[in-house]
Specification:
Length: 188
């Protein structure tokens, strides 16, 4: 596949929705059109609560998910990210974690990805003190990655703290288990 956009980064987002809010690509597409006045959904993929991967904006198009970083990146949004009190939390279901790992590794085989980051990792240093302070962070959940010989291993934050993320490595996955989860038939 021709990489006209020189894609080298994957940015993972959350929908900033509370547990049980079942959003899909069509819902986020409508929100982005109505609230942001964009031509379509800003993310390239949505990972639903049940682990279904729904396509959003076509990969050949520049996304609208991370200002200043859209050109060379693919944006993935998982549904969730807030606890019942509206605070940032890792609310991903087991199915979402597995599907994220599958999708990230699939994209890493397709493009020369050099980094997989969370949206919060591109927060601006607004007070110019040389570090991104907790109050400057766009999102509070971070994703850490480890490059293996042929794929990325997306590590799972199990304890979220603004300054410290304790991680538990994700176990290997079986690609054949995900064939039914990728929904390429979604119409936006």
């Amino acid at each position: 596949m021709s990489n006209m956009r020189n894609i080298d980064t994957i940015i993972i987002h959350c929908s900033a929705s509370k547990p049980g809010v079942d959003l899909h690509a069509k819902n986020i597409d409508r929100m982005h059109r109505e609230q942001n006045h964009w031509k379509c959904i800003g993310y390239h993929y949505i990972v639903c609560l049940d682990g279904t991967i729904e396509p959003g904006r076509d990969e050949t198009e520049v996304g609208a998910h991370a200002k200043g970083y859209n050109g060379p990146s693919i944006g993935i949004c998982y549904v969730g990210g807030l606890n019942t009190s509206g605070q940032a939390a890792d609310t991903r279901t087991t199915a979402q974690k597995e599907s994220l790992n599958y999708l990230v590794n699939d994209l890493c085989r397709k493009y020369p990805i050099v980094k997989v980051i969370g949206h919060r990792d591109i927060s601006p240093d607004t007070n110019h003190n040389g570090k991104v302070d907790p109050w400057e962070r766009i999102k509070a959940i971070a994703f850490s990655t480890q490059r293996t010989t042929d794929k990325f291993k997306l590590e799972i934050p199990v304890l979220i703290d603004i300054d410290h993320v304790v991680i538990q490595p994700k176990v290997a996955f079986d690609k054949s288990a995900y064939s039914g989860r990728v929904n390429k038939q979604v119409q936006l």
